[in-house]
Amino acid sequence: MGGRAAFVWRDDLVTYRPGPSHPLNPIRLEATADLLKTAGILTKGDVAGCRPCAVEDLLLVHDRRYIDAVRRWSARDEAALTSQERAEALAFGLGTADNPVFAGMHAAAALVAGASMAAADLVMTGQAQHAVSLAGGLHHALPDRAAGFCVYNDPAVAIAHLRYRYRARVAYVDIDAHHGDGVQWIFYEDPDVLTISIHESGHYLFPGTGHGHERGRGPGFGTSINIPLWPGTGDDSWIECFEAVVPRALRAFQPDVLISQHGCDAHRMDPLTHLAVSTRALARAAELLHQAAHELCEGRWIVLGGGGYDLLGVVPRAWTLLWAEVAGRPVDDELPEQWLARWKSKRPDIPKRLRDACGVPDGAEQKAATANRLMLERLLAELSLPV
Ligand SMILES: [Zn+2]
Ligand SMILES: [Zn+2]
């Protein structure tokens, strides 16, 4: 699977940081880039630059009143807001524990969206066959409000750009442990955007949506697919559900371009979720998506990051396997000693290998697998996908 893969990056992408003790911490990106370089699979020639989105680009997805509010509060410190201002910010989802007002948030969020748009342009103009924007994947933001750590919805901005600029038919696949709700709702009525999300069931996890019956509306009916999983889901069941639905749904939809969100918070070590997969399942999903991009889209594949709150124990390993898959470069399973030495003061017990050891399924995992199989049977019957 040849073809150039681009890694969209500039150092100030780490300015998207909603506060010093907020779980979404850009150290995950720094440690990942460092691991990719130390492992020798990311070189200067792979890196492509980007610019912040213009307001016109954000307007493809977001309301002007919301963008204006984000810009207005960007110059402010949350502690300095009057109670009147605080109430106004709250109306836009800002000023909460999940989405605090932080200095420079408009510029930082517009840059993340610009990185994902740049990835889309690289792929659509043929400068790269695949392009990765690991700072991207902020899939919860809604047109008129911030949500779930996300200020601007960069996947949606990139998809809207693909639709309007390139007239492309777009398939979006989201493997983050949380439902990709923002992206789903934004394109809920669009027959030319397929969204598929595999996640921990909304009965147990934020944002509470992503149920099997959410299938799209009006002309978009049938172009939203959700695979809600039980807490405790391990590798085998996660992969079984992914494999049963995603490749077939993509084949039936026949997209021009594939865009995927690779939040790695479904990992069993993640502190915010209750799925129990390993880096193997996440890598298997990337492999299947890569195959689908070549089979259906002449290789056009845009790859985004997403959630991941075991910042050093999971994210760098998961996303190193991801980049190795995208770039088609073999990588040593053992983490380089120099990298471990650099980061161990912050996290002494980082697993030493990229691929986690296979565990023996416990009772919770078996129970989840049984429940997932029932969910899957119902879902497949409803979707009636061609085999
Ligand atoms: Zn390829
Ligand atoms: Zn997540």
Shape: globular
| Low-confidence region ranges | none
Distance between the termini: 25 Å
Q: What is the helix/strand order?
A: EHEHHHHEHEHEEHEHEHHH
Q: Which fold name is given in CATH as the topology? A: Arginase, Chain A
- CATH superfamily name? Histone deacetylase domain
Query: In CATH's first tier, which class applies?
Result: Alpha Beta
Bound molecules: zinc ion
CATH architecture: 3-Layer(aba) Sandwich
Give the topology, please.
Layout: E1 5-8, H1 27-38, E2 47-48, H2 55-58, H3 64-74, H4 83-90, H5 105-124, E3 130-133, H6 154-166, E4 170-174, H7 181-186, E5 193-200, E6 224-229, H8 235-253, E7 257-261, H9 279-297, E8 301-304, H10 315-327, H11 337-343, H12 363-383
Parallel strand pairs: 1-2, 1-3, 3-8, 4-5, 4-7, 5-6, 7-8
Helix pairs in contact: 1-10, 5-6, 8-9, 8-12, 9-10
Bound molecules: zinc ion (2 copies).
Residues 176-178, 263, 265, 307 line the site of one zinc ion (ZN).
